[in-house]
Amino acid sequence: MPGKHLYEYAVIRVLPVVEREEFINVGIILFCKQQKFIRVLYRLNEAKLRCFSQETDLEQITRNLESFEKIAAGQKHCGPIAEMDIPSRFRWLTAVRSSAIQTSRPHPGLCDDLEETVKRLFEELVL
Question: Which helix (H) or strand (E) holds 114?
Fold first, then answer.
């Protein structure tokens, strides 16, 4: 569909040691209500995470990030949150939490192509 799309995005962050509040950007969540679009992209840089803490449970973090992706995709076997409508899933994924995986506050934007925008934000803010 041509034209500008209003979207929101948040950066997914991993806090290797939650108490220190240091984080590494590992992903992006992009959401557009009008287009019924939500996408999660992530990549874990294990070497970088190990620089912050040798005790970081990378398997658990990977499982949690996979859950983010599955919830965003609305995979029914992922529980009641994945069955919510897209705006509710985005709000749940970006809710404030004090765990090893957190998100930035949502930021708005306008674009012509949502897929290209999520890729561009991922490259700029994560890679």
Answer: helix 114-125
pTM: 0.94
Residue 42 near residue 58, CB atoms below 8 Å = no
Q: Judging by DSSP bridges, how do beta strands 37-42 and 101-103 pair with one another?
A: unpaired
Mapping DSSP onto H, E and C, the string for 92-110 reads HHCCCCCCCEEECCCEEEE
- Chain segment 77-91, per-residue pLDDT in tens: 999 999 999 999 999
Grouping H, G, I as helix, E, B as strand and the rest as coil, residue 44 is: coil
For the chain, what are the domain ranges?
A: 5-125
Say if residues 111 and 7 touch (Cβ distance below 8 Å). yes
